[in-house]
Amino acid sequence: MTEDARGELLDGRFDYRALKDGRVIVSHYGRPVTTLAGKDAERFLKRAGGLEDHAAQLLMARVTGNFKRGNER
Predict the structure, then answer these.
(1) How many Cβ atoms from other residues are within 10 Å of residue 63's Cβ?
(2) Which of 16, 32, 49, 57 is the most exposed place for a label (fewest CB within 10 A)?
(3) Domains: count for the chain
């Protein structure tokens, strides 16, 4: 997994919620950013279940897609 060199994800800006129908909603500061369904949702829940908070933040940043580059200001 990539590294958070600037410490941007230490504030817990990402969160996720698993729904009863199997979908997972990933939020950034409380606003929904992406929705995972099917195999993607299952894979995400398996990976996120055993991670500590910072590693889970990195995973959620990667899943959202637009937050993984590291060059945005």
Answers:
(1) 21
(2) 49
(3) 1
* pTM (whole model) above 0.85: no
Is residue 2 within 8 Å of 68, Cβ to Cβ?
Answer: yes
Give the pLDDT confidence of 33-55 residue by residue, as tens digits: 999 999 999 999 999 888 888 78
Q: Whole-angstrom Cα distance, residue 59 to residue 1?
A: 8
Cβ–Cβ under 8 Å, residues 17 and 25: yes
Q: Is residue 25 part of a domain?
A: yes
Q: Which amino acid is at 72?
A: E
Residue 41 domain flag: yes
- Which letter does DSSP use for residue 28 in this model? E
Residue 42, domain extent: 8-64
Q: Per the domain annotation, does 40 fall within a domain?
A: yes
Strand order from edge to edge, sheet including 24-28: 14-18, 24-28, 31-36
